[in-house]
Design a protein that fits this description.
This protein is an alpha+beta fold and about 140 residues long. It has one domain. About 30% of the residues lie in helices and about 30% in strands. A five-stranded mixed beta sheet has the order 3-4-7-6-5. The mean pLDDT is about 90.
Length: about 140
């Protein structure tokens, strides 16, 4: 069956374990982008030196990249997105795993600066090529 128990040790043969498993549902990255759950920012990411496709969660976009009321004309989405991508590129150079956490400073509608923790993960996309997803803690 792919499961061996020897003493206190359990070994699972992953290939055999999933061989006859029924797929209940799938939700691809492309579907998430089409549905608006993710926002594709790959073109902007190239400018920050990021070579893999990049998407941010709608939660991150709506919470911090969209310009808050009262800051229109002072800030723009392009600049706020650039801050997210540039700080990611700096953090990624020091990363030792496929998950990383970094911070970005954003100006709030109260015109105060707020440090926001952001998570990023690099994993396989639909065709198993690397893709990056940037999100707020709690997003998945």
């Amino acid at each position: 069956m792919g499961l061996e128990i020897e003493g206190n040790k359990v070994e699972i043969d992953q290939e055999d374990f999933w061989k006859d498993a029924e797929v209940i549902s799938t939700y691809t990255r492309a579907q998430a982008i089409k549905d608006g759950v993710l926002v594709d920012v790959s073109d902007a990411a190239k400018g920050a030196g990021i070579k893999y496709p990049v998407a941010v969660t709608q939660n991150l976009w709506g919470s911090w990249i969209e310009v808050p009321e009262g800051l229109e004309g002072i800030q723009d989405e392009t600049g706020r997105l650039w801050d997210v991508l540039w700080m990611f590129s700096i953090a990624a150079r020091k990363a030792t795993s496929d998950h990383l956490t970094y911070s970005v400073l954003f100006q709030t509608k109260e015109r105060k600066m707020k440090e926001v923790q952001i998570n990023a993960v690099c994993g396989p996309g639909g065709n198993l090529d690397p893709v990056i997803t940037i999100m707020l803690p709690g997003d998945d």
